[in-house]
């Protein structure tokens, strides 16, 4: 995994996005802090973007900060606004960048009271839990809503169903950070840098 991640970074990826699932907030189970720590050791310079799809994010922030997370995203569905604001402060006090996530069924307006406290807002463009799902169109409207409200130093990330077909629309709606899993890793390694350029909108189109 460290080797695959190193190749993705060499292919032009800006960061590594780690989907942490607890088997409760989402039905699947994935990685814990140990894997994050191992990646940090293998890739000391990488930006590790940890996405906590867990019921109780407060339980995990210290462990992931210690494991070398660069940013920690938690779900707006997991906490009320005062709880989310408090968790942002805790994450920041650990030297990590806080971010808040909104799931497809959740109104994006719910992020309003928390928005000024985060460095990034993450729009889920599929229902979280499994890779390889189809892109949900409403996430573009949510992104546009966020784009009107964030400061220049805040970023908007989109996660789920990102491919060379959906990426241009996500960028146009105002996304700065696109998370791609299947679109890159299901392709032969020799194509990764072309694909990453496509997702960024830097491709001349010939690689499709
Ligand atoms: Zn994610």
Please summarize what this structure is.
With 208 residues, the protein is of the alpha/beta class. The chain is 35% helix and 17% strand.
Tell me what you see in this structure.
- The chain is α/β, with parallel strands linked by helices and about 210 residues long.
- It has one domain: Aldolase class I (TIM Barrel).
- Helices cover about 35% and strands about 15% of the residues.
- The protein is built from 9 helices and 7 strands.
- It has a 7-stranded parallel β-sheet.
- The longest helix is centred in the middle third of the chain and has 13 residues.
- The two termini are about 25 Å apart.
- The model has no long low-confidence stretch (mean pLDDT about 95).
- Zinc ion (ZN) binds next to strand 1.
Bound molecules: zinc ion
**How big is the Rg?**
16 Å
Order of helices and strands: HEHEHEHEHEHEHEHH
Largest sheet: 7 strands, parallel
What count of domains describes the coordinates? 1
The top-level CATH class is: Alpha Beta
């Amino acid at each position: 995994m460290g080797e695959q991640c190193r190749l993705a970074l060499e292919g032009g990826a800006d960061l590594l996005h780690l989907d942490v699932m607890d088997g409760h907030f989402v039905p699947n189970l994935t990685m814990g802090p140990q894997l994050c720590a191992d990646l940090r050791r293998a890739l000391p310079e990488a930006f590790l973007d940890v996405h906590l799809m867990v019921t109780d994010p407060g339980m995990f922030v210290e462990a992931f900060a210690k494991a070398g997370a660069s940013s920690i995203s938690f779900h707006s569905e997991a906490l009320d606004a005062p709880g989310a604001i408090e968790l942002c402060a805790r994450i920041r006090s650990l030297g990590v960048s806080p971010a808040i996530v909104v799931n497809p069924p959740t109104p994006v307006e719910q992020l309003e009271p928390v928005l000024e406290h985060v460095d990034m807002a993450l729009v889920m463009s599929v229902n979280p839990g499994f890779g390889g799902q189809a892109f949900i169109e409403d996430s573009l409207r949510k992104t546009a809503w966020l784009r009107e409200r964030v400061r220049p130093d805040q970023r908007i990330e989109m996660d789920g169903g990102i491919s060379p077909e959906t990426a241009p629309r996500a960028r146009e709606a105002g996304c700065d950070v696109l998370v791609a899993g299947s679109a890159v890793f299901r392709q032969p390694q020799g194509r990764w840098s072309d694909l990453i350029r496509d997702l960024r909108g830097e491709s001349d189109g010939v690689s499709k």
